[in-house]
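Exercise 7b. Backbone tokens:
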């Protein structure tokens, strides 16, 4: 009987979770729903590091950076006309100017 109680509670919480996500999609759109669910997953991972002791490796940082880059590329692809990124040549020129100015300050 205890197994059926666990199955019922798991089914009920799953139903409420799916209903919440579908309501988010209907009211605010898919982007907000995906952002909320991704934030929930990130919060769950951070809490699992705080509650349970597990080794923290560089792979977690690398994975987080990949997720952030993916979100940025998604937003950028939808707003190309409003977001103007500098070209690589402009970035290189800025880096060169900073290096030469810092070298001249050292002397």
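Sequence design result:
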């Amino acid at each position: 009987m205890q197994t059926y109680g666990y199955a019922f509670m798991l089914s009920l919480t799953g139903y409420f979770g799916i209903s919440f996500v579908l309501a988010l999609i209907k009211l605010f759109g898919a982007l907000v729903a995906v952002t909320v669910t991704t934030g929930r997953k990130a919060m769950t991972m951070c809490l699992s590091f705080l509650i349970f002791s597990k080794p923290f490796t560089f792979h977690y940082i690398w994975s987080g950076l990949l997720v952030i880059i993916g979100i940025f590329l998604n937003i950028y692809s939808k707003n190309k006309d409003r977001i103007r990124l500098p070209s690589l040549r402009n970035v290189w020129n800025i880096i060169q100017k900073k290096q030469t100015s810092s070298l001249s300050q050292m002397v």
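Instructor comment: The CA atoms of residues 21 and 33 lie 6 Å apart. The chain has a mean pLDDT of 84.
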